[in-house]
């Protein structure tokens, strides 16, 4: 059973999550300094974190592991706002039952890097 404090935390987490999806449209990152840059649309799912949809047999899927922390560049829907760099942790990687052959990769922002492009 959830206590009042637990309900407050759940509502706060959901609010932070919705704020991310309202503020940003996509995310891009590289797995290493010389590697390619991967671009993914941020997706909404029923849990409290944004996620990306990654093809199971792709190179990026093979490299992403739960617990990894990556520097990701978040893009706003419009061109008028600068991109935002955020340290982001991979918090889940689960097969998706609707999009066969894909993983839903859950993301959690660890800290904002005080740099914008």
Secondary-structure map:
Blueprint: H1 4-23, E1 26-30, E2 37-41, E3 51-55, H2 59-63, E4 69-75, E5 84-95, E6 102-116
Antiparallel strand pairs: 1-2, 1-4, 3-6, 4-5, 5-6
The major beta sheet can be summarized as: 6 strands, antiparallel
Highest-level CATH class: Mainly Beta
Kindly report the spatial arrangement of strands forming the biggest sheet: 2-1-4-5-6-3
- Judging by the overall fold, what is the CATH architecture? Roll
Spatial extent as radius of gyration? 15 Å
Explain the overall architecture.
It contains 2 helices and 6 strands, in the order αβββαβββ. It is α+β, with helices and mostly antiparallel strands and 117 residues long. The chain has a single domain, classed as Pnp Oxidase, Chain A. Strands 2-1-4-5-6-3 form a 6-stranded antiparallel beta sheet, with no helix packed on it. The longest helix has 20 residues, at 4-23. The protein is globular, with a radius of gyration of 15 Å.
What would the keywords be for this entry?
alpha+beta; six-stranded antiparallel β-sheet; 2 helices
Concise synopsis of the structure shown:
By secondary structure, this protein is of the alpha+beta class. Helices cover 21% and strands 42% of the residues.
């Amino acid at each position: 059973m959830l206590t009042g404090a637990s309900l407050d935390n759940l509502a706060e987490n959901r609010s932070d999550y919705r704020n991310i999806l309202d503020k940003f449209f996509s995310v891009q990152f590289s797995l290493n300094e010389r590697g390619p840059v991967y671009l993914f649309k941020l997706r909404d799912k029923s849990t409290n974190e944004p996620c990306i949809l990654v093809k199971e047999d792709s190179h990026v899927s093979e490299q992403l592991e739960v617990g990894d922390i990556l520097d990701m560049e978040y893009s706003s829907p419009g061109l008028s706002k600068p991109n935002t760099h955020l340290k982001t942790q991979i918090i889940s990687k689960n097969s998706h039952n609707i999009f066969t052959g894909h993983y839903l990769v859950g993301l959690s922002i660890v800290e904002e890097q005080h740099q914008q492009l």
